[in-house]
Amino acid sequence: MTTATDIVPPTTPAPRASKSRKRNRETRSALWLILPTIVLLAIVIGYPIVTAIIQSFQKDPGLDAATGLFVTGGFAGVANYAHWLFQQCMSSTGQTIACPPGNLGAGFWNAAGVTFFFTVVTVILETVIGTWFAIIMNRTFRGRGLVRAAILVPWAIPTAVTAKLWYFIFAFAGIANALFHTSILWTSDEWASRFAIIIADTWKTTPFMALLILAGLQLIPEEVYEAARMDGASTFRTFTTITLPLVKPALMVAILFRILDALRMYDLPAILTGGGGGNGNATTTLSILVIKQVRSGYNSASALSTITFIIIFLVAFIFVRVLGTNVVRTQEAQQKGAK
Amino acid sequence: MSAVPAGSTTIPLSNAQSKSIAKTKVAVRRKSTAKRWRTTISALVIVVWCLLPFYWMIITAFRDVGYTYDTAFWPTHVTFDNFTTAFSTKLGNHLGQALLNSLFIGVCVTAIALLIGTFAAYALARLDFRAKGIVLGLILGASMFPGVALITPLFQLFTNIGWFGTYQALILPSISFVLPLTVYTLTSFFREMPWDLEEAARIDGCTQAQAFRKVILPLATPAVFTTAILAFISSWNEYLISSQLSSDATQPVTVAIASFAGSQPHQEPYTTVMAAGTIVTIPLVILVLIFQRRIVAGLTAGGVKG
């Protein structure tokens, strides 16, 4: 029954109708198998996201400035979004004014800048170093097992522990300063704190990147390299004309995953610097800003988390469009190849 | 020799080419010794990169608190005091309780995700149906979803229905990132399964469900087990949601460590925190080293080969 299409070669005309019938039947059973996952995801992701969007257009409950009565909110239009994007706040008389300094709303563009800075720098570093790791690990040498085991250690350590570990390394009297005979305030200086985050993140995530790239490298047949060697191609030329183009699909997916992950960075800066440094917000990412806001106004926090979500979605969309990385299609092709 | 494009791989070697290969063989051998050395040194750099900070955490954990900033690279002033301090509840730390919490939450999340994700993964890997691309895209999108976008509504919801600080308030949100990961990894594992055996079982009179349960599931056990490890680790390592929705009684280890209190109010309890970090990390590292091959397969299956 189910084997019909597998056994009959694709050139015979007969299985057309049966294939479509089979497909209909399988669509029905697939629906029931997938339903629990979709329902559960709708509850844990769909519900919060819809609620957040609705709330982002609501006013915070409070005292009405004109009447002096307590009001529960109401439609706020795009005020919550303007609060973040244009630093507009409500004055005590209910008018729209520019946010006073120190208000969280004023921190939006700083947080967006910090988030993008972290993303660009860490992803570039992790890609370059990760590719190098992967190339080394792809060679045969004694102790390769040890390297592959070692590379999983930073990945396995919880980010919270990683943050505490680097917090200790970067302490004023810590080993980083002692080793290089410096006296840098790693967790409070504006740029030093940013680089502390970048160093810790690169340490933790490069091995994971290397593993993903290594998996792509291993799909390249050895004969291709042998041929290049016989033709006398230099190592550099082999890398640019063979390795890079062939590993590109795997590399692009890995980079996309990393970018999306870096854009929502929270744990590391939250624990390592508390989002502080410089004037107190040198390492405040968008996620940290949302969390700072949650306890002082749901609606405003909802607007900010929606903005964050949209930014991440847009970046993914642009990345896929510009670089032509189609994760799902790559998947499907892979699956067809496997069948 | 001219650099011929890589496309010429399949062309059989001519006599002239074979001769030139023989000539270069000696040079290649000499070059390969140098290359082997470079590879070994590079490999050493990678190992040091990965293990040095980890090693520093462990030797600090065993160092007397009075020598916190000792810069010796070998264990000095060895003591177990930091571990007893880490487990002590006198300072308001609940490391023991937090370990149990993390274990409980991790097991629940993993069990739910596997139970539900296996069905979806089976359908995605095995069945041919419409909208498969959309479903895959949805699940992939869900795994990339920023956790911070869930916090605000959940914070409010759980406060309203009295769930704030309960276990279910920590388990449910974790499903949001563990379930997509589970479905994704399992799908790519299931694609590699020998499905012909299922067909054979069906010809022998099994129903599709029976064939799956009796033939495929036993074969799939390693894949399911690997996925379980990955799911458990990602739940164990979660911090953002737990830091906002847990109470002192239910907080997992990541939250406990991030807010670890020391004996001196204005002094960072570095050695104690390193001891706590070691306790939290060592089980994971052992798990990862034992199942190294499988975990690498699982990680890359979900990521690249996909």
Which word captures the global form of chain B?
flat
Radius of gyration of chain A: 26 Å
| End-to-end gap of chain B | 40 Å
Give the biggest beta sheet of chain B.
none
The separation of the N and C termini of chain A measures 17 Å
In CATH, the homologous superfamily of the largest domain in chain B goes by the name: MetI-like
What does this molecule look like?
- With 339 residues, chain A is mainly α.
- Chain A has 15 helices and four strands.
- Chain B has two domains: 16-61; 83-305, MetI-like (MetI-like fold), CATH 1.10.3720.10.
- Chain B is built from twelve helices and no strands.
- Chain B has helices at residues 15-61, 81-87, 95-126, 132-143, 148-160, 168-190, 196-203, 208-236, 240-245, 253-258, 270-290, 292-305.
- The two termini of chain B are 40 Å apart.
- Chains A and B meet through α2, α4, α5, α6 and α7 of A and α1, α3, α4, α5 and α6 of B.
Summarize the structure.
Helices cover 68% and strands 3% of the residues of chain A. Chain A is mainly α and 339 residues long.
Keywords:
heterodimer, A: 339 residues, mainly alpha, MetI-like fold, globular, B: 306 residues, 12 helices
How are the secondary structure elements laid out?
The complex is a heterodimer of chains A (339) and B (306).
Chain A: H1 4-7, H2 15-55, E1 62-63, E2 70-71, H3 79-85, E3 88-90, E4 96-98, H4 108-138, H5 144-150, H6 152-156, H7 159-169, H8 175-180, H9 190-217, H10 222-230, H11 235-263, H12 267-272, H13 286-294, H14 298-323, H15 327-338
Antiparallel strand pairs in A: 1-2, 3-4
Chain B: H1 15-61, H2 81-87, H3 95-126, H4 132-143, H5 148-160, H6 168-190, H7 196-203, H8 208-236, H9 240-245, H10 253-258, H11 270-290, H12 292-305
Helix pairs in contact in B: 1-11, 2-11, 3-6, 3-8, 4-6, 6-8, 6-12, 7-8, 8-12
